[in-house]
Structures are given as structure tokens and as C-alpha cells.
Write a structure and sequence with these properties.
Pathway: Protein modification; protein glycosylation. Keywords: Repeat, TPR repeat, Transferase. This is O-GlcNAc transferase C-terminal domain-containing protein. GO terms for molecular function: protein O-acetylglucosaminyltransferase activity. InterPro entries: OGT, OGT/SEC/SPY_C. The longest helix is centred in the last third of the chain and has 17 residues. The chain is built from eight helices and nine strands. The chain folds into two domains: 52 residues, no CATH class; 207 residues, Rossmann fold (3-Layer(aba) Sandwich), CATH 3.40.50. Helix content is 35%, strand content 12%. Helix 1 runs parallel beside helix 6 and helix 6 crosses helix 7. By secondary structure, it is α/β, with parallel strands linked by helices. The chain has a six-stranded parallel β-sheet, sandwiched between helices. It has a three-stranded parallel β-sheet with strand order 1-2-9, with no helix packed on it.
Length: 285
């Protein structure tokens, strides 16, 4: 779970937990471990049990955007990721979307002054964007992170290495997320991202489990179009956001009890079936 891909050490690691989105059947050959397929999303989380999980609005005080350095008006694209998850092509797609939506802003987690200067140089030099269109923020305690996250309009997943906990943070707070799931695409140049990797398919697994397939793009052009549509088509965006608000309560994604019961039953199957040579599909309990 903490290392979402193969270790390549068959004598050391026996099993890898996954689902049919994160490791589709045509990619099984690249994993040295025997694969345990969860019936829904493989990623377990405990967001539902946290008082700050975003499901209980009474916990949160209303925070004006201006209090944390955000514009009061406009559409906020949120990218609170480690800097090593961001690749040049994805960042430029985000900036291109900003040029298509004048009253929009990109809210990025900073890794320091050098990062900020480099990203601002690309935004202004290549796309002609004003400095205030990029807003940087620092890491804060988790409770403050969840509080300010609610002020975003759309969370932007990073294709090279998807959001895991931060993606759940966004979705449980009712903030839609756009993610990329390219099918059978081999990178052809240094700017292409290999999205066949397990950690590059987690966001799509989240969204499929929440029945929000319209937020899954199959290429970067569609990814950018989804960004723009969320910011410009209020009726469509509000419909997606309302479905997320409702689905997060019933979805297996945030049902930890359900996940654990299924997982425990799966482990019993592993013990009982000592002849597993390739995969085991865990049946939902």
C-alpha cells in the first residue's frame, strides 16, 4: 500500500493489493508479486472517521478566501502536490487552461522560492499570464489543510504520480478532481508521461468508485477540456459536484468497515488457497 507498484523481488514480496483499474489484466505480466484484486478501489483510508473529513459541515468555520491569500472571485484550480509529481507537459496544460478561462487561478503547493520563480517564468514567458494567476501556499497542519482545501473548485491530479491521500482529502471534502487514464499509450518523447504505472492510475480508480467517470480524461487535451468545462459550464459542474457530495457517503471509497471486512475475508482465502500462482479476486463481503 505504501509502495504502489512492483518491488521486482518475488522471493521477498508474495502479494500486491490492487484493483482492475490500477493494474488491468494486460499489465499483470510486469508484476513479480501475486496480485490480490479488491472488488472496488484498492486504496484504504480512514477519512470517514476523522472529525475534519469534510462530511460534517458543522465542524468547519466559514473562511473567506482572502484570509488565506486567494481571490474572493474566480475559479480556483488546486494542485497541492509534492513538486516531484509535477511534469513539464502537465504544468503547461494547466497554464493553457488558465488562458482559456480568464477569471481562473492555479493554487500550487510550494517547494521553495526557486520553484516559484521557475513556474512563474514559464507562466509569464510562454503563456503571457500575470503573476497573480499563480498562487503558492506552504504546508500547514492537517486540520488547516482540510479547512483551506474546501475553498478550491477543482483538484488537479498529476499524471506521473497520482494523488493518493491528497486526492481522498479533496474528494471527501466534496471538491471534484480531474485525472488522466490513458489506455495502451507508450511514451514517445521525454515530455510524455508513462501512465501505465500503478501509481498513475489511482485517481481514475477513485473516480470510477465514486461513479464520476466524466472527470477521467484519456489524453491531456481532454484533461484540459474538462478543466475548462468545470470552470465555464456552471450547470454541468454543479451537477458533478452534487453527485460527488451524495456519492461520497455511499461509495465504497470511504467505507473503511466495508473495505476491511472484504480484506479480512480475502486474507482467509489466501491462507486457504496455497496454490495461488498468479491472481486472486477478492469477493466483496
Amino acid at each position: 500500500m505504501g509502495f504502489p507498484t512492483t518491488c521486482g523481488c518475488p522471493p521477498l514480496i508474495d502479494y500486491l493489493v490492487c484493483d482492475k483499474i490500477t493494474i488491468p489484466y494486460h499489465l499483470r505480466q510486469y508484476y513479480s508479486e501475486r496480485l490480490l484484486y479488491m472488488p472496488n478501489c484498492f486504496f484504504v483510508n480512514s477519512h470517514r472517521f476523522l472529525p475534519t473529513n469534510g462530511m460534517n459541515d458543522s465542524y468547519f468555520r466559514e473562511v473567506p478566501r482572502g484570509e488565506i491569500g486567494l481571490p474572493e472571485d474566480g475559479f480556483i484550480f488546486c494542485a497541492h502536490h509534492r513538486s516531484d509529481k509535477l511534469d513539464p507537459r502537465t504544468f503547461r496544460s494547466w497554464l493553457q487552461a488558465l488562458t482559456r478561462v480568464p477569471a481562473s487561478y492555479l493554487w500550487v503547493l510550494t517547494a521553495g522560492e526557486e520553484m516559484e520563480q521557475n513556474l512563474r517564468a514559464i507562466a509569464s514567458g510562454e503563456f503571457g499570464l500575470e503573476e497573480n494567476r499563480l498562487i503558492f501556499c506552504k504546508k500547514v497542519p492537517r486540520s488547516d489543510h482540510l479547512l483551506r482545501l474546501r475553498l478550491a473548485d477543482l483538484f488537479l491530479d498529476t499524471p506521473a504520480y497520482n494523488a493518493h491521500t491528497t486526492g481522498c482529502d479533496s474528494l471527501v471534502n466534496g471538491i471534484p478532481m480531474v485525472s488522466l487514464l490513458r489506455l495502451h499509450v507508450v511514451p514517445t518523447n521525454e515530455n510524455d508521461v508513462d501512465t501505465e504505472k500503478m501509481p498513475s492510475r489511482v485517481g481514475a480508480s477513485f473516480l470510477r468508485t465514486l461513479d464520476l467517470n466524466e472527470l477521467i480524461a484519456t489524453d491531456m487535451a481532454e484533461y484540459e477540456d474538462i478543466m475548462v468545462r468545470c470552470a465555464t459550464d456552471a450547470q454541468w459542474y454543479n451537477n458533478v459536484k452534487e453527485r460527488l457530495r451524495i456519492n461520497r457517503f455511499a461509495s465504497p471509497l470511504f467505507d473503511t468497515d466495508r473495505w476491511m471486512k472484504t480484506w479480512e475475508a480475502g486474507l482467509k482465502d489466501v491462507v486457504a488457497k496455497d496454490d495461488i500462482t498468479d491472481t486472486l479476486h477478492i469477493v466483496e463481503r
